[in-house]
Amino acid sequence: MDFTLHKSVLNKQSSIQITGSKSESNRLLLLQALFPEFKLENVSNSDDSNLMAKALASKEQVVDIHHAGTAMRFLTAFFAVQEGREVTLTGSKRMKERPIKILVEALKDLGANITYLENHGYPPIKIKGKKLTQNKVTLKANVSSQYISALLLIASKLENGLELTLEGEITSIPYIKMTLSLLDEIGIESSFVNNTITVKPNTQHLLPKTLTVESDWSSASYYFSIVALTDVGTEITLTSYKENSLQGDSVLVDIYKAFGVETTFLNNSVVLKKKTQNLEPKSFNLVNAPDIAQTIAVTSFALGIACDLKGLHTLKIKETDRLVALKTEIEKLGGQVEITDKSLHLKPNKLYSVKKNSPVLEGLGEPIATYHDHRMAMAFAPLALKTGLVIEDALVVSKSYPTFWDDLKSIGFKITQ
Ligand SMILES: O=C(O)C1=C[C@@H](OP(=O)(O)O)[C@@H](O)[C@H](O)C1
Ligand SMILES: C=C(OP(=O)(O)O)C(=O)O
C-alpha cells in the first residue's frame, strides 16, 4: 500500500515511546530459549523479533524467516546445536540472495551438519542438530558481524566453550560487543582481545533475572532527522533510552550534533532539540553503524548539503542493495549521488532553497520505491517537512517499527492512503 505524505508542520513539542531494540531482542530471545530462567521486558514488537520468537518456539520441520536477516543467521547457529532436531531454514526471495556461507562453514568446522538446498552459500539450508565437538574456529570478519554474534550466542552451550579468531577488518563491531555484554549480563564469561574472542562454557545454573531491552536507536534515527529538518527550538522526547547504550547506533547523538541537534538524557528519555542551523558539508565513517546511513543521506539531501559516507561495504547485502536504492531514489527527487561498493557521495543541491525549477516542490513527484526495505520508507519520510511525497509499499516499516506511521501522525505529519 502506498502512503501520501502531505507537506507537514511538526508540533513544537512532542513525545514518543519507541519499541525495544530489534538487535537486543533477537539476542535475548535466543538466550532465553537456551536458558529459560530469564524474563524479558520491552521486547521489540517488530516483525523480525516476532518471527524470531515464533521460530524458536516452532516444532515444525520448515521455518520461514521471511526478510529477517539477523534471525536467519542466529537461528542457523541455534538449530545446529539442537541435538536430534532436523530443520529447513528458509526465507524471502531476498533472503535467498543474502550470503550465509561464512557462518555455515564456521559451524561445520565446529562439527555441524548443514547443507544448502538451492544455491551454494545461500539459504535455504537444512540443519541436522547435533552436539558440536570442536571449540576453535577462524572466520572472515569483514562481511557481516551477524555471523560472529550467531556463534557467540550458542558458544557457552559447547562442551569446551569457543575460541573465535577473526580474520580481516572487523565490521559492525558494536553489534559484537552488544552480544558479549548481554552474555555478561546473564553470567556467561567472555573476552575479546585483538582479533580473538573467547567464551567460557556454561557449567552451572544461571541466576534467574529480568532483563529490560532498551528502546531501538536505529528507529530513533528518523526523529533525529526530523528534528534536524525543523526550525530552531523544536523538541521531541523519546523513551526508553539510556546514556550508556549497548547499541552502536546511539552514535546518532554525536552525528546529529553536526546537524545542530542537541540531545539531553533525562531519566529514561532523550530529548532532541534543534539548536542551530548547521549547513556545512558532512562526512562520516559508518563502519560501526551501517543502519543509519540511509537516514543521514536523506537528512543531508533535504538540507541541500553535501555528504560523504564511508564504511558502507555491508549495505549491498542488506534488505536491498541500499547504496543503489539510495542513489536511485534521491536522484528521482533531483539530487546527485555517486556511489562505490563502500561509499556514497551526495552533492549539494538547491532543490529546497530555490523554489523555481524544483520538480519536487511542484507536486508529489514520482513515488519513492522502498524495495522491501523498511529503512528506505522510514528514511525518506522526514522529507514531508519540506515537500509532499508518495512512499510505495509503506507498511514495509513493520520489519522493525510497526507503529512508525501512527507515531509520525501523532507529532504532526499528515498522511493519507
Ligand atoms: O547483529 C545485529 O543485530 C545487526 C548487525 C548489523 O549487521 P552487519 O553486521 O551485517 O552489518 C546490522 O546492520 C543489523 O541491522 C543488525
Ligand atoms: C539490516 C537490517 O536487518 P537484518 O540484517 O536483520 O535483516 C536492518 O534492520 O537494517
UniProtKB/TrEMBL annotation:
Pathway: Metabolic intermediate biosynthesis; chorismate biosynthesis; chorismate from D-erythrose 4-phosphate and phosphoenolpyruvate: step 6/7
Enzyme class at the top of the EC tree: transferase
Coiled coil: none
Subunit organization: Monomer.
Binding site for 3-phosphoshikimate: K22, S23, R27, S144, S145, Q146, S172, D291, K318
Protein name: 3-phosphoshikimate 1-carboxyvinyltransferase
Keywords carried by this UniProt record: Amino-acid biosynthesis, Aromatic amino acid biosynthesis, Cytoplasm, Transferase
Functional note: Catalyzes the transfer of the enolpyruvyl moiety of phosphoenolpyruvate (PEP) to the 5-hydroxyl of shikimate-3-phosphate (S3P) to produce enolpyruvyl shikimate-3-phosphate and inorganic phosphate.
Catalytic activity: 3-phosphoshikimate + phosphoenolpyruvate = 5-O-(1-carboxyvinyl)-3-phosphoshikimate + phosphate
EC number: 2.5.1.19
Subcellular location: Cytoplasm
Active site: D291
Domain Enolpyruvate transferase intervals: 57-408
Organism per entry: Gelatiniphilus marinus
